[in-house]
Write a structure and sequence with these properties.
Blueprint lengths: L2 H6 L1 H13 L13 H13 L4 H4 L4 H22 L5 H9 L1 H4 L17 H5 L1 H8 L4 H22 L2 H6 L4 H25 L11 H18 L1 H6 L7 H4 L15 H16 L2 H8 L5 H21 L14 H11 L3 H18 L7 H18 L5 H13 L6 H28 L32
Catalytic activity: 2 (2E,6E)-farnesyl diphosphate + NADH + H(+) = squalene + 2 diphosphate + NAD(+); 2 (2E,6E)-farnesyl diphosphate + NADPH + H(+) = squalene + 2 diphosphate + NADP(+)
Pfam families: SQS_PSY
Pathway: Terpene metabolism; lanosterol biosynthesis; lanosterol from farnesyl diphosphate: step 1/3
């Protein structure tokens, strides 16, 4: 964005400067103490992920390398799955047996198409393999298990001709796809967090919380990227939803169907919003600040993105995203605590509720869901202090005034300020219309006769 934008939106520039100047990482990675292969892994991380690279490198040292390698392994899988130049006969076994390849010393893959943006990661995948052998076995076992599950899931979708030609058909298929590409990632990360004693072990007993974290992120991305996917001939919006509004998938992108398209996107947003409460509940179980930052930042970005795309016709003809200034503000807020993150969610939920259109078939459901989210946040962090409410109730029962000394002081101050303001207004009005207040203070005035020697004395009119 240009200089003019920031001149017109100074708050955006302020947020960027605040993040750049005042953000202090909880942990700092020290490249000087790393082996060449590990430094190479972080270089691959920087190249393959703009959004996750920074937060990964600020993680607790216990989890820094395992999470980095976990990301790179799954990115390698994804690079093979996304490459349409690889024949399915070669792609399927690669995906299903990727966990075996990552155990082979020196294994690399050079058959990606020249335009595949992350092909360099697989060309130098031997760096990742070398570092995988150095991490603790429990961490390695988690990475391997998720790699097996995700590889098989990707292979199933890659050879599914109906999916490749017609896209996602049902909501169940839609959520299964999100599970494979995001839910499994959340599962692996949660197990890593618990293994590193950075999260409450009870999370392992509530897999639906972990699943919602991944589903919420992936569904938000799918809604936002609908135009980009349309150009690539991919359909991730389930037919169960879009067929209620238009006859064919292409109809969504026709200008004359804008109202129907917006109503369809509203239903997609509603489907994503149902995960919000469980995402907040999940974050309450994180015990380490760096891990909290790692999980909270993407979630805050997601709710902001969801508000941006809600009833926004631009998603059907361009690729939109939140501004850099908004992103920096969200990162600043999301690296504090759960209460601040909840306020972020509350702020954007209210914006969604405000944009909700009564003519939309999903109006009532969206309004109800927004209300449920706010209500859930209030159960975590009540806006009114229960102790004060209890004291106020007792005072009412005893017939005592319910105002505390602080409130009384503020009220008294407001009364005095009001009196001063009104007095000043009256005096100013009188002066404006010609009143001479200066004569009141003259020592030789009529009202205040002077007693100083040599001053003019009043004339004594003797009796004639």
């Amino acid at each position: 964005m240009g200089i003019i934008f920031y001149l017109l939106h100074p708050n955006q520039l302020r947020s960027i400067i605040q993040w750049k100047v005042w953000h202090e990482p909880v942990h700092r990675r020290d490249p000087s103490k790393e082996a060449p292969t590990l430094r190479a892994c972080f270089e691959h991380l920087n190249k393959t992920s703009r959004s996750f690279s920074a937060v990964i490198q600020e993680l607790n040292p216990e989890l820094l390398v395992p999470v980095c390698l976990f990301y790179l392994v799954l990115r390698g899988l994804d690079t093979i799955e996304d490459d349409m130049t690889i024949d399915i006969k070669e792609k399927e076994p690669l995906l299903r047996e990727f966990d075996q390849y990552m155990e082979k010393d020196g294994w690399t893959f050079t058959k990606n198409g020249p335009n595949e943006k992350d092909r360099e990661l697989l060309v130098h995948f031997d760096d990742v393999i070398a570092e995988l052998k150095k991490i603790k076995k429990p961490y390695y076992d988690v990475i391997k298990d998720i790699t097996i599950k995700m590889g098989n899931g990707m292979a199933d979708y890659a050879k599914n001709a109906a999916f490749n030609e017609q896209g996602v058909a049902t909501i169940k298929e839609y959520e299964l796809y999100c599970h494979y590409v995001a839910g499994l990632v959340g599962d692996g990360l949660t197990r890593l967090f618990v293994e590193g004693n950075m999260a409450n072990p009870k999370l392992l007993e509530r897999p639906e919380l972990t699943e919602s974290m991944g589903q919420f992120l992936q569904k938000t991305n799918i809604i936002r990227d609908v135009h980009e996917d349309y150009l690539d001939k991919r359909r991730f919006w389930p037919k169960d939803i879009w067929s209620k509004h238009v006859e064919t998938w292409d109809d969504l992108f026709k200008p004359e169907n804008q109202r129907k398209a917006l109503e369809c996107s509203s239903e997609m947003v509603l489907n994503a919003l149902k995960h919000t409460e469980e995402c907040l509940f999940y974050m309450a179980a994180i015990k380490d600040q760096s891990v909290f930052n790692f999980v909270a930042i993407p979630q805050s970005m997601a709710i902001a993105t969801l508000e941006l795309v809600f009833r926004n016709p631009a998603i059907f003809n361009s690729h939109i995203k939140i501004t850099k200034g908004d992103a920096c503000q969200l990162m600043t807020e999301s690296t504090q605590n759960l209460q601040v993150v909840c306020e972020v969610f509350r702020r954007y939920i209210r914006k969604i509720h405000k944009k909700n259109d009564p003519r939309d078939p999903n109006f009532v459901q969206i309004s109800v869901q927004c209300g449920k989210i706010e209500q859930f946040i209030d159960t975590l962090f009540p806006r009114q202090d229960p102790k004060k409410l209890g004291e106020s109730a007792k005072q009412k029962e005893r017939g005592q005034p319910g105002m505390d000394p602080g409130e009384a002081f503020i009220l008294g101050g407001m009364v005095l300020l009001t009196l001063f303001f009104i007095s000043g207004l009256m005096i100013g009005t009188a002066w404006f219309f010609g009143a001479r207040f200066d004569t009141l203070w003259k020592t030789d005035g009529v009202y205040w006769p002077s007693t100083e020697p040599g001053s003019a004395q009043p004339i004594d009119h003797k009796e004639l």
